């Protein structure tokens, strides 16, 4: 298990990780999601003892990394795919790592096979593509057969086959009962692989919840209504119930519009009519995880290069809409429920 407890890391004036508290449990794939610069790599480095927290704790199996006697056998990590010496062969690189960590050399052939590099094991790493280096990095992480695996953007540089392979691998590792924590800045990728989601924005925790809850909370339809008579409409909306008898969620958008979850546009129109509120705009949008993610993390716009983070924004106008969307959506609270259940 991995744990961050009030974990904070400052570099000068920059707070890269800001009071993060979460746990990563065995037997499931936990995705670590956040835009560029949100603090994911820093969190990994703190967990792996490569950097010291300014305050708080980063724990692997309940201990700080420095206190672990045989770390390679406890936690494997892929952080930087270019870490291998370019002049060495893949096999020589892994043999050196194995020797340094007291791991028996036959394990090298085994992990080379797992990652599909057996045939090029004798070739110099300098000639490897980024995808091959990613595979080699994953092989290095698996060398000690550790119970915990930490992968920073493992799909980076991989072609479609490679991406599918990584998905299968992380699933198998979790099914074997291991703790698997991997980062991505793509919600679409997370949706396909992760059982549990930890989302950070600007170094702070935004979501810590089962993936199914996140999908459930965020895939719901939202109705936007713009009226000059907000005061007349807000009351009736707040008093309304969904078809299931739940309270309707009403929230103010950035432009003064009301964002309603739990009612159809027709129902909102009827309520407005009954309340004597003039309606200027009324439309329904299908919720998308990608948009929700952008909305949730958008309070860190200085980290988002124009266009760069939006490349898989998927749904119609998701990124644009998010860029103009209101501040933090209270529905996020509904999914911020740390799952403390132990799986083994
Ligand atoms: N060694 C460092 N010195 C100064 N600032 C740093 C250092 N490492 C990270 N930062 C800053 O901390 C913040 C978080 O960076 P970090 O690399 O952890 O984010 P990230 O979520 O991993 O982003 P990416 O997806 O781009 O890798 C950024 O503002 C970054 O510039």
Number of strands: 13
Order of helices and strands: EEEHEHEHHHEHEHEEHEHEEHEHHH
Class of the largest domain in CATH? Alpha Beta
Q: List unreliable stretches of 5+ residues.
A: 299-344
Residues in helix, %: 25-40%
What would you call the structural class? alpha/beta
Overall average residue pLDDT: 84
Any idea what the shape is? elongated
- In the sheet with the most strands, the strands line up as 5-6-7-3-8-9
Tell me the CATH superfamily of the largest domain: P-loop containing nucleotide triphosphate hydrolases
- Please describe the biggest sheet, giving its number of strands, its sense, and whether it closes into a barrel: 6 strands, mixed
| Beta-strand share of residues | 15-25%
Distance between the termini: 10 Å
Bound molecules: adenosine-5'-triphosphate
CATH fold name of the largest domain: Rossmann fold
Explain the overall architecture.
Residues 305-344 are annotated as: Disordered. Belongs to the ABC transporter superfamily. This is Putative ABC transporter ATP-binding protein YxlF. It is an enzyme of class 3 (hydrolase). Residues 2-227 form the ABC transporter domain. Strand 6 (148-152), helix 6 (160-175) and strand 7 form a beta-alpha-beta unit. The chain has 344 residues and is an alpha/beta fold. The longest helix is centred in the middle third of the chain and has 16 residues, at 160-175. Mean pLDDT is 84; it is low at 299-344. Helix 3 (90-100) crosses helix 4 and helix 4 (106-114) crosses helix 5 (130-142). The chain has 13 helices and 13 strands. It folds into two domains: 2-210, P-loop containing nucleotide triphosphate hydrolases (Rossmann fold, 3-Layer(aba) Sandwich); 216-335, no CATH class. It is elongated, with a radius of gyration of 23 Å. The strands form three sheets. It has a six-stranded mixed sheet, with helices on both faces. 43% of the residues are buried. It has helices at 40-47, 71-74, 90-100, 106-114, 130-142, 160-175, 187-193, 211-218, 230-239, 265-275, 289-297, 318-324, 331-335, and strands spanning 2-11, 14-24, 28-33, 55-60, 75-78, 148-152, 179-184, 196-201, 204-210, 222-226, 249-252, 258-261, 281-285. The site of adenosine-5'-triphosphate has 12 residues, from strand 2 and helix 1.
């Amino acid at each position: 298990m991995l744990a961050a407890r009030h974990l904070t890391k400052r570099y000068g004036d920059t707070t890269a990780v800001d009071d993060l508290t979460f746990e990563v449990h065995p037997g499931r794939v936990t995705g670590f999601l956040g835009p560029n610069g949100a603090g994911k790599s820093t969190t990994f480095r703190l967990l792996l003892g490569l950097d010291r927290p300014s305050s708080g704790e980063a724990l692997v199996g309940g201990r700080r990394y420095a206190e672990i006697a045989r770390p390679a056998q406890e936690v494997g990590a892929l952080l930087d795919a270019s870490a291998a010496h370019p002049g060495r062969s893949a096999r020589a690189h892994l043999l050196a790592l194995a020797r340094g960590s007291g791991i028996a050399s036959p394990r090298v052939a085994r992990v080379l096979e797992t990652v599909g590099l057996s045939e090029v094991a004798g070739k110099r790493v300098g000639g490897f593509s980024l995808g091959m280096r990613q595979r080699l990095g994953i092989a290095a992480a698996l060398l000690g057969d550790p119970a915990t695996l930490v992968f920073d953007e493992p799909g980076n540089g991989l072609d479609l086959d490679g991406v599918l392979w990584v998905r299968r691998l992380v699933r198998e590792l979790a099914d074997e009962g291991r703790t698997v924590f991997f980062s991505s800045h793509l919600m679409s990728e997370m949706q396909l692989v992760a059982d549990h989601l930890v989302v950070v924005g600007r170094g702070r925790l935004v979501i810590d919840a089962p993936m199914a809850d996140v999908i459930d909370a965020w895939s719901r339809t939202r109705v936007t209504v713009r009226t000059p008579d907000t005061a007349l409409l807000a009351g009736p909306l707040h008093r309304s119930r969904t078809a299931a008898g739940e309270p309707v969620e009403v929230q103010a958008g950035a432009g003064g519009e009301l964002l309603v979850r739990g009612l159809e546009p027709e129902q909102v129109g009827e309520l407005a009519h009954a309340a004597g509120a003039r309606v200027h705009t009324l439309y329904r949008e299908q919720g998308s995880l990608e948009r929700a993610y952008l909305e949730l993390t958008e309070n860190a716009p200085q980290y988002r290069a124009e266009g760069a983070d939006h490349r898989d924004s998927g749904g119609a106008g998701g990124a644009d809409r998010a860029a103009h969307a209101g501040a933090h959506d209270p529905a996020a609270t509904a999914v911020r429920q740390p799952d403390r259940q132990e799986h083994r």
